[in-house]
């Protein structure tokens, strides 16, 4: 599945999955991967920073969506907010 952000059916930025509009108002999507950093710590990096061998050690995935209100609020501006969720990869967590 390919996720991307493009103009949706109402003219606002939206999150799409393989060409299907999922969520209106998404202006950014960031995916980072958690690698063990020693001492029980996790270091989050983007996919291009991970070597082939490191993919076997990814222990979590962090998604951050930046969304806006789509409809301007009383002062005529949109309100944006980030939503972040981290998911553990099964059988990889220490």
Structure overview:
This protein is an all-beta fold. 0% of the residues lie in helices and 54% in strands. The chain has no helices and 7 strands. The strands form 2 sheets. It has a 4-stranded antiparallel beta sheet with strand order 5-4-6-7, with no helix packed on it. The chain starts with a strand and ends in a 6-residue tail after the last strand.
Order of helices and strands: EEEEEEE
Number of helices: 0
Query: First CA to last CA: what distance?
Result: 29 Å
Pick out the low-confidence regions.
none
In percent terms, what proportion of residues is strand?
Answer: over 45%
Q: Over the alpha carbons, how many angstroms does the gyration radius reach?
A: 17 Å
Principal-axis shape: elongated
Oligomer: single chain
Give the overall average pLDDT: 93
The SS-based structural class is mainly beta
- Record field, number of beta strands: 7
Please bin the fraction of helical residues.
under 10%
Largest sheet: 4 strands, antiparallel
Please state how the strands of the largest beta sheet are arranged side by side: 5-4-6-7
């Amino acid at each position: 599945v390919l996720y991307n952000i493009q103009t949706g059916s109402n003219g606002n930025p939206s999150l799409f999955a393989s060409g299907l509009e999922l969520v209106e108002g998404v202006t950014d999507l960031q995916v980072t991967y958690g690698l063990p950093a020693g001492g029980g710590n996790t270091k989050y990096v983007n996919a291009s920073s991970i070597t082939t061998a490191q993919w076997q050690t990814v222990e979590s995935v962090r998604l951050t969506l930046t969304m806006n209100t789509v409809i301007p609020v009383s002062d005529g501006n949109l309100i944006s907010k980030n939503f972040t969720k981290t998911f553990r990869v099964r059988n990889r967590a220490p």
